[in-house]
Design goal:
The complex is a heterodimer of chains A (158) and B (161). Chain A is of the alpha/beta class and 158 residues long. Helices cover 32% and strands 21% of the residues of chain A. Chain A has four helices and six strands; from the N terminus they run H-E-H-E-E-E-H-E-H-E. Chain A has helices at residues 22-38, 59-64, 105-118, 135-147, and strands spanning 44-51, 66-71, 77-82, 93-96, 124-128, 152-155. A six-stranded mixed beta sheet of chain A has the order 1-6-5-2-3-4. In chain A, helix 4 links the parallel strand 5 and strand 6. The longest helix of chain A is centred in the N-terminal third of the chain and has 17 residues, at 22-38. The model of chain B is unreliable at 10-21 (pLDDT under 50). With 161 residues, chain B is α/β, with parallel strands linked by helices. Chain B is elongated, with a radius of gyration of 31 Å. Classes of the chains: A alpha/beta (158), B alpha/beta (161). At the A-B interface, helix 1, strand 1 and helix 4 of A face helix 3, helix 4, strand 4, helix 7 and strand 9 of B. Strand 1 of chain A pairs antiparallel with strand 4 (79-80) of chain B, so a sheet runs across the interface.
């Protein structure tokens, strides 16, 4: 008995075919051109804050305490730890002097890092700028807090 | 069929170097033919990777905020900029959704937007301001926004690594 490898109805079609890649390349090139032309190379982000005065705080926030940051003239920054248990009373009010009229970011970063390493539960920050405080200074300070996982930032209007 | 129809498969190129080689001169020998075939598959691979990379980095945040006229501050720890009511402060003037608004009517304009059918209240206010701006110029927006019922404020910044 003989079994033919071929199918009953004629020969099998060859599976060895070539895909025409030229139109595919055309489509991809068009895509690349479009994306390159419309690409935005400036990455925008946002620092989320809430209005600090008059907003309700939840119980956990009240329990853990908060840090009040007052921006003075000449780049002075005053940190005040409020209702933070275990924080020494003499250390609860720290003023970092400005350097040449600008905020000493190295010192502020140091203070924030030291504080967050000891009181990781404290997440609330209240920013209290003065009328001459620069917007950029505010952003830099808020970014420092955010980087140290103190992300519930409020800002007080004048 | 396609293989034979391809113009590349029929192109015979002769190597110029082979004929002029000093070590093994091939003047007397019959010229070798080289069939040049372009590897289109790798080209398609490269293009695909490029398209995927560009699509991944395709940012739509610029559509939300017009930052052509202001120099935004830079910050590293930022969140993704989302939709919201855009308030731009430029040269002491206020622009709500790119429309100039006087300081006196800032509150009413924001209130209108908050009471509208859009979910503006949920999204908050996106503040676009110059980095050198004094807080005295910025404060009225926060005050008007919170009075209008907005609880979230997003300061637009340029992300740094």
């Amino acid at each position: 008995m003989h079994f033919s490898s071929k199918s009953g109805r004629g020969r099998k079609k060859s599976m060895n075919f070539e895909l025409n890649l030229i139109p595919f390349i055309d489509v991809l090139s068009t895509c690349i051109c479009f994306l390159l032309v419309t690409a935005v190379f400036v990455n925008l982000g946002a620092i989320h804050v809430s209005q600090a005065v008059g907003t309700e705080k939840n119980k956990e926030q009240v329990k853990a305490g908060s840090v009040i940051v007052s921006l003075g003239s000449g780049g002075d920054v005053r940190f005040e730890a409020k209702d933070v248990k275990g924080f020494a009373a003499d250390l609860s009010l720290v003023t970092i002097k400005g350097q040449g009229g600008k905020i000493n970011y190295t010192k502020t970063e140091e203070w924030i890092k030291t504080f967050t390493s000891r009181f990781a539960k404290v997440k609330t920050v209240l920013m209290m700028p003065n009328p001459t405080s620069k917007y950029d200074d505010l952003i830099q300070l808020m970014a420092q807090f955010k980087a140290n996982s103190m992300d519930q930032i409020g800002i007080a209007p004048l | 069929m396609l293989k034979s129809a391809s113009p590349l498969s029929q192109s015979n190129l002769t190597s110029l170097l082979a004929g002029t080689s000093r070590i093994r001169p091939e003047h007397n020998k019959a010229k070798k033919t080289m069939i040049a075939s372009l590897m289109l598959t790798s080209l398609v691979d490269a293009f695909s990777i490029l398209v995927i990379f560009l699509l991944m980095n395709f940012s739509t945040s610029q559509d939300v905020v017009n930052t052509d006229k202001v120099q935004l501050p830079q910050a590293s720890s930022t969140s993704f900029i989302q939709q919201g009511v855009t308030v731009r402060i430029q040269d002491g003037k206020f622009f709500v959704e790119e429309k100039p608004v006087a300081l006196g009517s800032l509150l009413s304009t924001l209130k209108k937007l908050n009471d509208g059918p859009d979910a503006a209240k949920k999204e908050g206010i996106i503040i676009v301001a110059d980095r050198k701006l004094d807080y005295a110029e910025l404060s009225p927006v926060i005050l008007a926004g919170s009075t209008a019922g907005f609880s979230k404020f997003k300061f637009a910044v340029i992300k740094t690594d």
